[in-house]
Description:
CATH class: Alpha Beta
Strand order of the largest sheet: 3-4-5-6-7-8-9
Structural class: alpha/beta
CATH architecture: 3-Layer(aba) Sandwich
Low-confidence stretches: 223-230
Radius of gyration: 17 Å
Keywords: Kinase, Transferase
Protein name: Carbohydrate kinase family protein
CATH topology: UDP-N-acetylmuramoyl-L-alanine:D-glutamate ligase
Number of strands: 9
Shape: globular
Strand content: 15-25%
InterPro entries: PfkB_dom, Ribokinase-like
Helix content: 25-40%
GO molecular function, one term: kinase activity
Number of domains: 1
EC number: 2.7.1.-
Amino acid sequence: MGVALVAPDGSRLGLPHLEPVNGVTYPSDVMDSMARDADLLVLTNAKFVRPLVGPMARLGVPIAVDVHLIADLDDEYNRPWLQAAEIIFCSHEILPCRPELWVQRIFDRYPRCRLTCVGLGSRGALLGIRDGRLLWAKAVAPRGVVNTSGAGDALFATFLHVWAHTRDAASALRAAVLHAGWKIGHRLPVTASLTRVELADLAMSHPPLSTSGRWDGGSPGTVTPYWAAG
Length: 230
């Protein structure tokens, strides 16, 4: 359960109520049997999942997590997920540094991570790839902005869906930004989603603009802050 307070400009303040599930213990044997043949494990950073992260990491199945609001690279609560995940998403809202520098620090600190994405709100999203590439997709809102609740969830889920089927990070990022931008034009975004075909059709009329660079600037310790322009 949760309450979302939405301002006239579409921005929101979310107040989740997680206490009912925080006390739940998920059966590890069930998780183990279901996860072994999976292509990807999406492990929410809710409290009841925390004891499962270590055992799931040992299965060798790729793990994805959205840690949402984060300001500390060594965040004690989120550390198990950060250490285990190959795909890490977060919001830019309380980062202690520029998003592209955060991407570099994630890769330096967590060697298991292959892809890391920072949601930038009205600026779209920034995606770093372990090989040094940095992709930026500008925000697009085909129906305007009504309610931004769930935009980050839509970004995360859509990226994973497209990436899992194509392994094309750039296409997945553009699709994710477009779907999130479309959903926030709805009064209740959680109730509205596009099918794959509908999203492809929307991309024809509202193609997200993207550009690329390098989070390592071509050499260790150098970051190209191109994303902030425009």
